[in-house]
Design brief:
Number of helices: 13
Helix content: 40-55%
Structural class: mainly alpha
Number of strands: 6
Low-confidence stretches: 1-7, 300-316, 327-350, 413-440
Mean pLDDT: 74
Strand content: 5-15%
Strand order of the largest sheet: 1-2
Radius of gyration: 21 Å
Distance between the termini: 31 Å
Amino acid sequence: MKWGEGLFGIIRPCRHRLSEKLQSEWMAHLCGMCLALRDDHGQAARVATNYDGLIISVLVEAQSARPTSDGRRKAGPCPLRAMRRADVAMGEGARLAGAVSLVLASAKMRDHIDDGDGVYKRRAVAGGARRVAERWARQGADAALEVGFDTAVMVEAVDRQVEVEALAGPGVSVLTVTEPTETATGAAFAHTAVLAERPDNAESLAEAGRLFGRLAHLLDAVEDIHADRAAGAWNPLLATGTGPDEAHRLCRDAATGIRLALAEVEFVDGVLVHRLLVHEIDEAIDRSFRHAGFPVESPSCSVGAKHGNGCAKHAERPERRLAARPEGSWPNQQPPYPQPPNQQPPGSPYDPNSPWGPPGGPTPPPPPPGGHNVFVACAIWAGLCCTCQWCCRESFEDPCTGQQRQGCCHKCDCGDCCDGCDCCGNCCECGECCSCDCSC
């Protein structure tokens, strides 16, 4: 997790794809986790808030037999809500989500410090960040123990990542590299069944969490592929020689596995879980591969005549494939990457035969300009969020990297209000008039 990206994750639901009810519930969990981090660990810990972490809170509530209103509290005005009050999630689910996010944020920060990435090359910044990471790891572990979750399995898995990456090379499966992440997320997902007092759900949720961790790791690698290749940085896909078609297949298999695992879980109200861990995961895969320059063919489903195009109620679920990539067909191609003087092994970032780069592949973006230091960047991010520029503007400059980014909802490819919802029948707001507990 780079500075400035902590608020995101692979699950980034667009407001046009969520009904008003589901949008309200999603924001309740996001704000609940943020406030749980503040209450348990102080204001600075709120930067560990991320979209993927709130799924823990969503899972606990979805399995709980208690009324949803019992797990809400009134929160005061917040700049990120345009100074409006709101009902936010509270309780063990929000606290577990915050603790897990804090422990993982601590581990990622230590990883960047050890690698000397970006601003962490500066000794003063690295020293301060290491103290913050150590404090977050300790606080996250203590908070998790209060809700009965031992973070040792997560810490051990993250620490093992360095050893696993050192063994990765051409011919080694990329799934070997994703295994520690799978273990950590599987343990966190499974504990939601304990908090909701539904132990029979633990095994299926562990499987869903394991596959979600795999997917998150792969999509992060896909989105960073060109930047890592240009900078000569380590990337699991480049290191193992995993091409885009194989990476896409693994992501789709993980998405299917998550859907099948969730079908075995007994939910009291699983509409938001289904929306986030089925439909939004499909969107995340498409978005990541488009970002890397590999368009995805994904037939949409809607009401009326479009039902024959893949709605699970009326036909087989459509298979999303990478678009055909004829040799030299990508627009705005540039000459191959500059080669270092010595020959590089297959799968290295500079390998001219890498399936992720020219010839015949997408052109990498130019090296990003430098951004601001951590404290200035955080202040600018706060301003972007408070004024809604990060989601509503056509583009804005990322204060951490200096890159131009598009607003989250600008030109959102939502189609009509039912596109992407494979189980909405004859209504336009999935979850408002159907249960979404279909086999899609």
